[in-house]
Structures are given as structure tokens and as C-alpha cells.
Amino acid sequence: MSDSLPRIIVLATGGTIAGASGNPGSSAQYQAATVPVGALLQAVPPLQRVARVEAEQVAQVDSKDMSFALWSALAARIAHWSAQPDVAGIVITHGTDTLEETAMFLHLTQPCPIPVVLTAAMRPSTSLSADGPLNLLDAVRVAAHADARGKGVLVVINQQIHAARDVAKTHTSAVDAFVSASGGPLGFVQDDYVRFARAPLPRVAILPLPSAWPLVEIVASYAEPGRVMVDALVAAGVRGIVVAAAGNGSVHEGLGAALADAARQGVAVVRSSRTGAGHVALPAPARAAPGGFASALDLNPYKARVLLLLLLAADPSLGTDPARLQARLGAY
To answer: Which range is the signal sequence, renumbered to this chain (predicted)?
Structure first.
């Protein structure tokens, strides 16, 4: 391995990319987060020709169990490694279930002086045609590439490069499960060729890491929803509610009444869409409260929740000022 190669740090958190099964013919029955990062790297010999790769096992979890504590730990390790002048980039291996949420958190909180690239796999490491090794190799290629600098947090999977803000998992099992519905991928990776076709949306500012996490939850609008969930959340001290609304942010009148009551008690209410793509219209000033809740714009409910968590942690009063809440949502 040449000392002239860029130094890349791999932070491992577990997930399917580190999963294993006793049956190589199965891609659905396996145990996630069992293979240590050292073994993952050894399975990809071409890495030695791309970068000087060092690894750190930050966690070993199934990403369905992702936590705020692990997000904070990742942020700390990114800060540690990015402060070292000879580190050219950071790769994070992650499970696919909550990858888009972790990517959004890092996008909002990390200055990213060097490329930070998340990658994952839809098939465990022991599966026939496992996708993890190539995804890991491609992620390192992108993290080491000069054109990746200044583009914030990226996700590299299935030979595509996605912006952390845009990407979402849209299939339960396919290797092409991740898409960026709003603008498509930023670029692609094919062998040693890394190409960016567009730039991500610029970030207005970096949000601070929370010292305490406010209670923010998601409810859905559908045919005749009850108000039990909203009332229970308010009683539990919820500070923010994201609505996975129908269509273009439409909220059932019964659920809207419950949310309006919550808003009058200072709860920040944000409408997203359960459709998976498109912008939610901004509230018209003259409309009644159930139709006038703030819009998450093109963020899906899960990404909108991450943003609302961080906004309320930084400014708990946003729930009492819908106009200021909308302005803050629109800045990210």
C-alpha cells in the first residue's frame, strides 16, 4: 500500500452490510450487525489500491434500533477524525432501515470539511451476490475523490451518489432500494470513474448538536383517524408532531382538530406527505388552523422529524410561532 494514497477512515455501525447467515442462498433470513469491520475490509482487497483505510467499530447494531446516543457518538468521531489534517475522507457503514435519518442528522449538524460518505447493503455479507463489498469500495472511492469535497454528507449505494438530504429507502429488499425523488442522484461510480452530474442544495447553516432531545413524534392522516394518539402525545409532553399527511399535505378534519388543539398548547406541528415525492404546499395565511400547519416542503416525514428535533432543541419557542417555524423549515 502506497503512502501517497489518501487516508480514509471507516466508521462502522453494523447493519445488513455486517450481517451474516448460515445459508448463502438466503438474502432475507440473517442476523444483522455480526461481522466486525476488519472482516468487511478484508473481503474487499481492491481497497488497498484506492486508499490507506483505517477502521473504527463505533457500534454494532441493527439500524432499526438507531438511537440519539449513537448519532451523538458518530458526530464526535467525525469531529475527531476530520480534525486530523492527513485524513482525506470518512466512510460510515450503516444499516439501510434508518440510513436516511442518520444521513439527514449528519447533513444538518456536520461542517464536513472533508467528504463524509454513508454506505450500506441490502444483502448480508454471506449472501450470494452480496452488494456490500462493492458499495464499500465505491464509498471509499468517492470519499477519496477531490470532487466530493464541499458537497456535504453523501450516500453511496448501488453505484449511485446521493445527497444526504434527498435520499430515501423506497423498497423492502431490492439492491436499488434507495432513490432521490426530488432531483435524482448527484452522480455515479463505475469502477475507478467517479462523476458528479449536479451539486446538492447548499446548506444555510449548521445546527448545533442537542444537549437534550425534545420529544418529537410522527402521526399519520388516513380515513377517519382518531385523536387518541395526538391527545396522548400532548399529555406525554410532546414538543413537535410531524404529520404524514395525504396527498399534498391534506389532513383529515378530525385529526386536524386534534392537531389544532395541540398547536394552541405550543406544540410545533409540521405537515409532510406520505406519498414519497413532491413538495407540500405552504399554508395560506387565511386558512383555518387544520390546513394552516407548517409545511416540510419536500422532506419525507422521517427527515422532517430529524429537522424538527434539531430546530426545537436549538429553539424550544418555535412551537408558539408558526411563521418563524415555517421560515426555519424552509432554510434547510
So the answer is: none
Q: What's the chain's average pLDDT?
A: 94
Residue 138 grid coordinates? 465505491
The three-class DSSP label of residue 209 is coil
Find, among 230, 228, 233, the residue nearest to 215 by Cα: 233
Q: What is the pTM of this model?
A: 0.95
Which cell numbers in the block locate residue 283?
399554508
Residues catalogued as catalytic = 16, 96
The 10s digit of each residue's pLDDT in 203-232 is 888 999 999 999 999 999 999 999 999 999
Q: By three-state DSSP, how is residue 236 classified?
A: coil
Give the sign of the dihedral formed by CA 314, CA 318, CA 324, CA 328.
positive
Enter the C-alpha cell of residue 299.
422532506
**Domains along the sequence of the chain with CATH:** 7-196 (3.40.50.1170), 216-330 (3.40.50.40)
Neighbouring C-alpha atoms within 13 Å toward the C-beta of 26 = 9
**Residue-wise pLDDT tens digits, 183-193:** 999 999 999 99
Say how far apart CA 269 and CA 289 lie, in whole Å: 10
